[in-house]
Write a structure and sequence with these properties.
6-stranded parallel β-sheet; 2 domains; Rossmann fold; alpha/beta
Length: 215
């Protein structure tokens, strides 16, 4: 007895119609599955994004030493543009306010390669990946409290970004001195501006930070 069953002709469906129906159902189920997965993953993705934003906000610290206030204002400009945190290098013994006296003192400190004591710094520079380092140019390089800072808080393999105020001597040899004191740091191109022009320097600062890929 032949047990092969034949579908009556009136109930037979074209092969192409059956294939189209299967594909449609598969696409529908795939879309539903992707939607469910996206909804389930959304809180996790938002958490990762918030964590990344928080980490990004903490990745830059603008450290500066300022005597007249010019470098402090430049540091504030960089902080506004980058959204980083800020810390100031403060000598325990303040420098004289008289110009001739401070110039003479700075010269003597450089000759003797002294390390003036500085106040403990908060926040801790060790918590940051990128350190901006600002200073006035005294006798062709950074003031000695900056050297104290670099030896008290070693930058190691971190990114170091110098910026400087001056009245004609630009960055001097400060970049070379930074490389000597911080041989393992990744030293980026520095920024310099005359102290008398700091208040109008924001466009130039923004262009510099953009060139470095920091904003």
């Amino acid at each position: 007895m032949n047990e092969t069953h034949h579908t009556p002709p009136q109930y037979a469906r074209p092969a192409h119609a059956e294939g189209s129906g299967l594909r449609a159902r598969r696409e529908f189920l795939r879309t539903v599955a992707l939607g469910v997965a996206a909804v389930a993953a959304a809180p996790l993705l938002r958490g990762h994004a918030a964590h990344a934003a928080a980490q990004g906000g903490k990745s830059m610290l603008i450290v500066h030493f300022s005597h007249s206030g010019n470098t402090r204002r430049l540091a504030a400009c960089i902080q506004r543009l980058t959204g980083g945190d800020s810390a100031e290098i403060r000598p325990l013994t303040p420098y004289p306010r008289d110009y001739d006296a401070v110039v003479d003192m700075a010269k003597q400190e450089q000759r003797r390669n002294v390390r003036p004591a500085i106040a403990p710094m908060q926040p801790n520079p060790a918590d940051y990946d990128t350190l901006f380092l600002g200073y006035p140019n005294w006798w062709g390089t950074f003031p000695m409290p900056v050297a104290t800072f670099l030896e008290s808080y070693p930058v190691g393999g971190r990114t170091l970004v110098p910026f400087c105020t001056h009245e004609g001597s630009r960055l001097g040899k400060s970049e070379q001195d930074l490389r000597r004191l911080c041989p393992q740091a990744r030293l980026l191109k520095g920024f310099e501006v005359r102290g008398s022009r700091v208040d109008g320097a924001e466009p130039a600062v923004k262009a510099w930070l953009t060139e470095l890929g920091l904003i």
